[in-house]
Amino acid sequence: MGELNRRALGRALSRAADAGVAEALHTVIHAPEDPIRRIALTGAPGSGKSTLAGALARERLAAEATRRIGVLAIDPTSRYSGGAVLGDRIRMDGDDDQSRLFIRSLASRHTAEGLADNLGALIALLAAYGFDEALIETVGVGQIDCAVRELVDTVVLVINPESGDVVQAMKAGVMETADLYVVNKADLPGADRAVAALNGRGGAPRTPGWEPPVLTASMDDAASVRRLSEALDAHQAWRSEAVDQHETRRRRRAYMLLALLQRQVQRRAETLGPTTDPAALLESLAADFRSFADLVRDQGETRDHG
Ligand SMILES: Nc1nc2c(ncn2[C@@H]2O[C@H](COP(=O)(O)OP(=O)(O)OP(=O)(O)O)[C@@H](O)[C@H]2O)c(=O)[nH]1
Ligand SMILES: [Mg+2]
Question: Cα of 45 to ligand 2 centre, how many Å?
Fold first, then answer.
């Protein structure tokens, strides 16, 4: 890949984040298969995701001289925690980082539903711009969390030991599954307890056959970031052996398609209002879906003959 056109990528990401259903369908149908590694850091507000993402990106850039990493912070919750916007937490040291690292925060001014539905398109853009790796920061709730879980290879759950939440969450059976658990801010009290609780957790793994490791990390401990990075590599290596990539792509594509169709149903229901005659609602949906079908057919023909 040549010089990275940051402005063009930035614009393309904004556009994709705000894309309507028809445009997003177009993207989903046309997206070529791409080999980009997809990693998500998810966890409660203030658990240190941005700080960790920054340290991890730097570590992974240093580990592989040609690696290119695109970082997307989706719905950053700085409004709750006062946490920094991701860019502040990722120091860029020089020209090398400039061309191998791209960071973008996508705040909630982009429609929340759109962001969730268009996440696949955002990742595809990073791939199209030559990135090997997409690192996604997200607060693990709602629709965006579902999308992240469907669309990334490795889900890292970042846990704040201060809260004691992990013990509560596990007792309540609402602990999210992940491929890797990181008790972050391990310099703070409570980390040992959180690690013990996680190690004793029951339940099925996110992906059958992979036993998720429980790690610790803290921002002043470079070795902890390296261990996390190596654990990510181990998971990616395991996946490439154990998981059918073709099947994964098919599933992701189906997920994105369904999410977009559901969005259209919801949007029509909202614009027409709750008192709309059911027949009218069904008529407009039929027209919407007909136009999507035309779009898909036309594109299929262009692809076959053009
Ligand atoms: N003690 C300690 N504090 C940390 C560590 N990592 C991050 N923090 C602090 O935790 C706070 C939140 O860090 P962020 O990286 O912004 O956390 P976040 O999860 O991205 O936050 P949101 O995006 O707002 O959800 C900041 O004040 C950090 O300085 C750590 O390893 N140890
Ligand atoms: Mg953050």
Answer: 7
